[in-house]
Structures are given as structure tokens and as C-alpha cells.
Design brief:
The protein is mostly beta strands and 115 residues long. Helix content is 0%, strand content 55%.
Amino acid sequence: QVQLAESGGGLVQAGGSLRLSCAASGIAFRISDMAWYRQAPGKQREPVATITDGDSTNYAGSVKGRFTIFRDNAKNTVYLQMNSLKPEDTAVYYCNTEVANRDYWGKGTLVTVSS
């Protein structure tokens, strides 16, 4: 059973930092591509960052240079380091992976950035 559990969200002032974590189980984490998505109020869910099993990364233009995705295969965990946060980064952040052409999602963690 695939399970993804996000943590690390919270309230932060603009310009601050947060680190999100996503602990994965039920998958061969070491060979899995992982991703972070976010959904702001009233908006569609959008991709934020991805990391392949070979540690290649990709970022949405709106977060490039501010956010960093990285993984610890020994802990089956993927992280999202978020710096220089802006009010427009406020959203529920979700961890995602695909197994056998099926998407799996965590329950999400709320990030609120105050101005």
C-alpha cells in the first residue's frame, strides 16, 4: 500500500523559510520519481518541483531559485526547502509519485505566508 505523508507546513512571514518533508512507504523509493504540487485557494493544483531517481530536478518558473527539492533514499523521504517565501506561495502542498501509471498523493500540508 502506497502511503505519502507530508509534514512541515505552517505560518511564516514573507521572506521566511520552511522545509517540507514527505515520508513514503509501500514503494521502491530509491527508483521512484517524486514531486511536490500545490493548490492555492480557488486555483487548480499545479506542479512545483520534481526529482528523478537519478536526482535530476525541475522547477516551476515561479519558484526557481527559491525552492530546492532533494531526497534522502535512506529515509524514504523527499524534501522541499522553501526560501524567500512570498504571500503567493500560500497553498496546500502535496507530495506525489506515480506507480504503474497511477498517481498517488499525500493528504497535503498547509503553508501560509503572511505579508
